[in-house]
Amino acid sequence: IDSRYNEGCTELAKYLFYGLYEQNQPNMEHASDDFPEEMLDDVIMLIKAECVHLYCNPLNYSYLLPYVSHWRNLHLYCMTEAEYEDEEAAEEFKISSFVSMVQDCQRIGVAYCSQGHVQKFDVFMVEKWPLIQAFALEGIGGGSFFTTKCKIVDMSEKLWQVYSRLDPVSLNNLLTEVKLN
After folding, report:
1. Sorting pLDDT into bands at 50, 70 and 90, what band is 97?
2. Where do runs of H (alpha helix) occur along 69-167?
3. Model pTM above 0.90
4. Which residue intervals define the domain DAAF9 N-terminal in the entry (predicted)?
């Protein structure tokens, strides 16, 4: 949600969470009745060589847990349901979680465009994403523009190579698709 539903970020989330965010997922249909879609999409992830940082809210935590519980060196940022009821505190927690995630990063790769919709990378469009803008807030955020602290690079083409590899999950998805047709 904080990337303004950027197609590259959405494609990466679908890949990493094995299609959890695909339209018409049976396990997500009943969730939509319980709380709004933007609550499900309220996820921030930073993948580093040695660990993964993941922010989620208490509403989507139980949906994400089966996908991430086996990840090594997972740093999870999540409030309790009671804490999350205070909207202002929840937003501050999200921003401070993001600041904490990126504090030692000098370069960050972003999945900017999807395979089916190639776009010219525009770092200023990334700077307009709500969470990136919030980074500049005094007191909670980093206090300066995100792009002055970190160099942002487009990782889309490198990720497409990863997506095209046949792994057990993509093989299962392919076989399921063939069975349906």
Report:
1. very high
2. 81-84, 87-102, 123-127, 130-134, 146-149, 156-163
3. no
4. 1-164
